[in-house]
GNAT family N-acetyltransferase (Paraglaciecola aquimarina), 141 residues
Amino acid sequence: MKVVHVDYRINEKINVNQFYDLLVNSTLGERRPVDDVECLAGMLLNSNLTVSAWVEGKLVGLARSMTDFNYACYLSDLAVNRIYQNRGIGKQLQILTQAQLNKRCKLILISAPTANGYYDKIGFTNNPRCWVLERDSDISI
């Protein structure tokens, strides 16, 4: 495995094309709306904490979060280009995300089933109390 210098950046501007390329070249592309550019743009625009990884000016990793910085931080996307996986980039993105938060702030995420072992390895604990309401649910109030 070739040693490369990874440049980590906090809240660096990322354009939709860079985000798209990262998603389709990571395992997240199959679970994100990559065919909806407007949605991808909104995902970037409305994130209030990003930690990105760059190699030779190319985006190779991203931790994209929404947070209040004090109590809860939802890590919505943790993506690393397949070529750069297994080099500690994902773990470093998570560490740098935590470094931006108050020490009491919880880092929360929803894992793909195949990634459960990864999050356990980097210190997360499993919490079975997550609930998701899909937007197209037929629910009346």
Summary: Residues 23 and 32 are 8 Å apart (CA to CA). Helices lie at 16-24, 37-45, 89-99, 116-121.
